Amino acid sequence: MKSEIYNQAKYYEIAFSFVDTEKQITLFEKFIKEYSKIKVKKVLDIACGPSLQLREFAKRNYTAFGIDLNPQMISYLKKVSQEEGVRINAIKADMNKFHLPEKVDFVYILMGSIIYTKNNISFLSHLDSVATALKSGGLYLIENVPMDWSSPKFLKAQSWTMRKKDIKVKTTHKITPKNAPNQIVTQTLKFEVNDNGKQSQFVDINDLKIIFPEEFKLLVKINNKFEFIGFFERYQTKKLYDKMTENIILLRKK
Questions:
Q1: Could you tell me how far CA 32 lies from the centroid of its own chain?
Q2: What is the DSSP letter of 95?
Q3: How far is CA 152 from CA 115, 129, 172, 212, in A?
Q4: CB of 50 within 8 A of CB of 77?
Q5: Are 108 and 28 in contact, with CB atoms under 8 Å apart?
Q6: Crossing angle for the helix pair 71-84 and 52-59, nearest 10 degrees?
Q7: CATH of domain 152-209
Q8: How far apart are CA 106 and CA 30, in angstroms?
Q9: Are 39 and 63 in contact (CB under 8 A)?
Q10: Where are the domains of the chain?
Q11: What is the pLDDT of residues 91-144, one digit of tens each?
């Protein structure tokens, strides 16, 4: 995938640094405690990017693996993890077809990145790869699966600004329906950067496929390598019984 945004690893990290990573990983540990059937020592971040989360896991003495298709992201993650004194096994790989050098106990994918499976065939291949990488009884946590096509919030442009020292990144994210019968949307992501007075702009536009909740569950059933545990609220281990834009899905490897 050609990209302006994902080649800007430093700016990408700043843009999404609003997440309380310590609190987020503590929540993941709660999910593990409640639903994992195995002890977790090794974790995998899929489509990891600069992964503040994986670096936090490493600080908590987990063995940390991250995969990303973008070489700039992988290089940046290796660099910053060394600077922070943590070890990350950062691997350039396609999230829809990958192999790890060893199995892990817990896998996650964040920020709706599951949408980059792009179609059902790739999604099933993705599940096969995760199943091969994950030990039986281990969890696969998926954050922010788009669930509510009709929600005004889902289709409304979102914009926010983050700063780090003398760098300011304004991010704009917009989803636009393109082919409703086939669940195709156009995602536009834009960075407007002021780096010590130097102005830059980076834009990515991609056509992606939404996987609706019941379709998601059916594909998991067809794949037949995971138990579907449920939809959960994004910030607590509480099951969802209504559709929400922000959510977590838990699968467990059979």
A1: 17
A2: T
A3: 19, 34, 16, 16
A4: yes
A5: yes
A6: 30
A7: 2.20.25.110
A8: 12
A9: no
A10: 5-147+211-253, 152-209
A11: 999 999 999 999 999 999 999 899 899 899 999 999 999 999 999 999 999 998
Residue positions counted in the chain: 254
Q: Locate 151 and state its tokens.
A: 């929600």
Flag whether pLDDT at 21 surpasses 70: yes
**Beta bridge partners of residue 198, listed in sequence order:** 195
How do residues 57-72 score in pLDDT, each as one tens digit?
A: 999 999 999 999 999 9
Residue 5 phi/psi, 5° resolution?
Answer: -60, -50
Pair of tokens at residue 79: 């660099």
Decide if 5-147+211-253 and 152-209 have a common fold.
no
Instruction: Say how many C-beta atoms besides its own lie within 10 A of residue 162's C-beta.
Output: 16
Q: How far is 87 from 101, CA to CA, in rounded Å?
A: 16
Beta bridge partners of 108: 45, 141
Q: Which residues contact 113 (CB under 8 A, 6 or more apart)?
A: 46, 47, 95
Q: What is the pLDDT of residue 1?
A: 52
Q: What is the pTM of this model?
A: 0.94
Of residues 11 and 246, more confidence is placed in 11
Looking at residue 196, what DSSP letter applies?
T
Q: Which of 24, 211, 247 is nearest to 114 (CA)?
A: 211
Looking at domain 5-147+211-253, its CATH architecture is 3-Layer(aba) Sandwich (3.40)
In what side-by-side order are the strands of the sheet with 158-164?
A: 158-164, 167-179, 184-195, 198-209
